[in-house]
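Researcher: We plan to redesign the surface later, but first we want a full-length starting point. Tokens attached.
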């Protein structure tokens, strides 16, 4: 775990996949024109706190959905790439735009389309519910499944490594 903490100290951008990472990966489709996704509130607060600590957050997903747009707007996530069949193009565009090296990026994904980014990023993470093959190629995998607090777990590991987590917790402990 020390290797993960050392890598996490350098992170300036965390990029999340959506389905299987910020959701449990199930798609609810009652008819052909409607789709539902469930996002965990703990993940949302973790993302907000991570951005407040000074780490940028981005999304790269293969799917295009107004639900993703709405959720990311509600969290204040500005770097949203939807409909990305080749995710590496979006990764390069975002890291170039923010002038970041791979070592400053954490990528979180859960399946084969994410694997090139997991392997390229300075800190490549997957979730506990990811297939074994993906977990074998990640630097670390969470204890929690995607859509069940895994993103919060990642945010807290990064903030802890950067020594920004305890001050944030302190703000909530000593509220008058």
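Model: Full-length starting sequence:
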């Amino acid at each position: 775990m020390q290797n993960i903490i050392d890598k996490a100290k350098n992170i300036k951008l965390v990029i999340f996949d959506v389905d299987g990472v910020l959701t449990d990966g199930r798609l609810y489709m009652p008819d052909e024109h409607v789709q539902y996704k469930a996002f965990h509130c703990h993940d949302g607060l973790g993302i907000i706190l991570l951005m407040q600590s000074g780490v940028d957050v981005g999304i790269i997903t293969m799917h295009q959905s107004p639900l993703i747009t709405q959720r990311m707007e509600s969290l204040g996530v500005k770097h949203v790439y939807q409909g990305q069949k080749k995710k590496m193009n979006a990764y390069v565009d975002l890291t170039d735009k923010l002038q970041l090296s791979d070592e400053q990026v954490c990528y979180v994904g859960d399946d084969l389309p994410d694997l090139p980014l997991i392997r390229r990023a300075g800190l490549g993470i997957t979730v506990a519910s990811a297939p074994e093959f993906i977990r074998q190629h990640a630097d670390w995998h969470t204890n929690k499944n995607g859509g069940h607090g895994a993103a919060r777990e990642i945010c807290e590991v990064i903030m802890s490594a950067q020594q920004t987590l305890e001050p944030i917790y302190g703000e909530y402990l000593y509220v008058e």
